[in-house]
Specification:
The protein is mainly α. Helix content is 50%, strand content 0%. It is built from five helices and no strands. The protein has helices at residues 33-47, 52-59, 63-70, 78-87, 92-115. Helix 1 packs across helix 5 and helix 2 (52-59) packs across helix 4. The longest helix has 24 residues, at 92-115. 16% of the residues are buried. The mean pLDDT is 83.
C-alpha cells in the first residue's frame, strides 16, 4: 500500500453555506415541560424571598433534588411537584396553570421570532485560528 499525500490543503469552510431561499426554516424547538416547571418554581420561590433550603425543608424534599428540579435537570413526580407547590403556598393546579401560561408565552415568542422578516439564526459554527 502506498500512502500518497496530496499537495492540496484540505479546506474546511468556517461559515456554513447560505441556506437556499426555498429551504424551509426548521420549526422552533418547543420548551421542555421540566424546564418550564423549574422556572416557575424558582420564580415563585424568589418572589417570596425564600431560600432553596427553606422550601426543600417545608416540602420534605432533599435540597439537591429540589435544586435539580428548579434547573430542569430532573423530571419530578406529581407528588414532588405538589409538595413543592404546597411549600410555596400554591396548589398543584396553580403550579400547572402557571407552567402552562409560561409554555404559551414562550411558544408564541419563538413562533414570532421565526416568522419575523429578516430573522437570522446566530451562526453556531466553529472558527479556528492559527
Amino acid at each position: 500500500m502506498s500512502n500518497q499525500v496530496s499537495d492540496e490543503a484540505r479546506v474546511i469552510p468556517l461559515r456554513p453555506e447560505p441556506a437556499r431561499p426555498d429551504a424551509p426554516e426548521p420549526a422552533p424547538r418547543e420548551p421542555l415541560w421540566r424546564d418550564l416547571v423549574g422556572e416557575v418554581l424558582r420564580r415563585e420561590r424568589l418572589a417570596q424571598e425564600r431560600t432553596l433550603r427553606d422550601v426543600a425543608d417545608a416540602a420534605r424534599i432533599s435540597l439537591p433534588y429540589l435544586s435539580e428540579v428548579e434547573r430542569g435537570r430532573k423530571e419530578a413526580s406529581s407528588e414532588v411537584l405538589a409538595a413543592a407547590a404546597h411549600a410555596l403556598g400554591l396548589g398543584l393546579g396553580d403550579l400547572l396553570s402557571l407552567t402552562q401560561s409560561e409554555l404559551i408565552r414562550q411558544s408564541a415568542a419563538a413562533r414570532r421570532a421565526a416568522t419575523t422578516p429578516g430573522h437570522r439564526r446566530p451562526y453556531g459554527g466553529l472558527c479556528l485560528a492559527a
